[in-house]
Amino acid sequence: MPQTGDNKILGYEYPNMAWLAARPAARLNHINPMEEPNTMTHRNLTILGAAALAGLLSAWMAGQAFDKVPAASSASQAVERARREVRMLDDLYKTAVVLVNDHYVQDENSFAAGEWARLVFTAMKEKGWHHARLVDATGNPLNAENKPADAFEAKSVKSLLAGQTYLDEVENRDGKRFLRAMTLVPAVNQKCIICHAGYKVGDVLGGISYTLPIEE
Ligand code: HEC
User: How far is the CA of 216 from the centre of ligand 1 (A)?
Assistant: First the structure.
């Protein structure tokens, strides 16, 4: 389980001010043997206006440095576009859910971040967009439906618990390619722990599992 500390969240060191920290470099081990070997890149976290939130957000999003596949072929460019979409969606969902959680959660009867996520993900799916779901990594979910549901989710949740923050792979279904991706969801602050009792800030609670068609 990743360790937390004053300037160390999920294993990453932050300089003096957490909210000014650039995204740390993280070697992300892709689990898809079909992809070309990747070179490590990292990009800066956009500095958010709400300083109090941003430190937590950067912790949550820490390590979401995504490897770049060399633009060798249009097939790998299509995969890269899908990865970029995951990155954008992940920033959007996590920024929104942390804001909702911080501003509207009073106690364990409040509207839960997890319920918010499920409703938004269902709406997006029904509108014909990507599929996303919140997946449990603790083995003891508040909603049993959030257990890992297939082989990709099961193995990527194990990797999240082992310290990784992002994983993806390309899946073929009926001749179409899909990007499967999993991003880390830690307990970002004390408000999460109101309902997810027994955990501490920084513990891995789960992940968001994405399935996006790869537009060739
Ligand atoms: C008000 C109570 C409450 C708060 C606060 C809360 N959650 Fe949850 N969480 C829930 C409930 C209830 C579910 C099950 C939701 C569902 O699937 O409908 C859930 C589900 C989850 C899951 C999926 C695994 C599971 O246990 O079912 C994760 C991961 C998760 N929450 C993370 C977080 C994070 C991170 C925060 C803080 C940003 C947070 N939660 C804040 C109540 C809460």
Answer: 35
